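Possible race condition, two jobs.
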Amino acid sequence: MTELAADGVPVAVTCRVLKLTRQPYYRWLANPITDAELVGAYRANAHCDDPAFGHRFLLDEARDAGEVVAERTAWRICRDNGWWSAFGKRRRGKGRRPGPPVHDDLVRREFTADAPNRLWLSDITEHRTGEGTLYLCAIKDVFSNRIVGSSISDRMKARVAVDVVANAVARRGNVAGCMLHTDRGSQFRARKLVRTLHRYGMLGSMVRVGAAGDFAAME
């Protein structure tokens, strides 16, 4: 009996038209997804929240979880998904464009609040030390003009922004309805942070392009 493919065409004819041998087809039929492809998909899914950090971040995350991953494998996963680091070297004559905002600008330069936990500002600063570079993320309450949350990390990734929100919430308690205004850095655009804001009932807000002066008070 002649074996038919899914579309009813004989397998032999299909393989001949596509210039393929039948052995690879039968191997794929027996195991359509290889173990390596499945592992790669899981790793890509775990990294998709912070794609702007490139393959080195994926490599570090996997190793922190106790998995053995070759650098070439991490690079291939990012290449296949079109994920490239936003922190590479700049090309001459071309600056980096800010990424697309995940929130609208709800503040519109009205940096006032009539009560605590109504409007927070957040930013990340880089500090060079004798043991390497540290990144400090802080949150300031516009009403009191005080720092209400902070986090420090040796990697500039979304976790430092997620941690600072959790730190501020732990200090201030119920912050439902509070607005967090940030720049358009990839840390603040990460889905991890968006989910964190939703969990606490907070609102996200981002500056518009060319409005860097909005953060003079925070800086």
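Job #2 (started ~2 s after job #1):
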Amino acid sequence: MSDARSLVSGVAGRYATALYEIAQEANSLEQVEADLRALSAALEHSAELRDLISLPVFSRSVQGGAMAALSREMELGREVANTIALMATKRRLAVLPAVIAAVQALAAEARGEVTAEVTAAKALTKAQQEKLAKALKASVGKDVAIDMSVDESLIGGLIVKMGSKMIDTSVASKLANLQNAMKEVG
């Protein structure tokens, strides 16, 4: 567990470690992860929710009430709902996205997984993601979870980030390298 704890630090790390350990003790880690994925999606799609957790103009009671209502509406489990309520009471909701990411990292580490952040010019199919995950697993020796995002400015190719390693096969990067090489010649 000490290796997993080194993945997280600071305020978000303390909340994430506590939530992770509570979920493990209650044998509800899968449910907690599902709740956190849903909460992350809600944060991604709602500017109002992002404002609520990050702007200091909202009082503790407003934040707490709104997050309690959100927890009920989303039918979040007790562990996640209680953690969110505590964070609202302590005015720590601004670190909620970091807590979500840290719990996901702790759970992945416990399963022996690493996460690859993959950015592509267009969304990869499920089969393409599985093939990429298999190739990356052969490289790192661990199961690889793909965190997919799309950036059309890449034109084509992929950017893969795993830990401190990055592989950039994007057309945009190759064009930039070619442009730099041409500047050096001229």
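Confidence is low (pLDDT under 50) at residues 1-6.
Logs attached separately.
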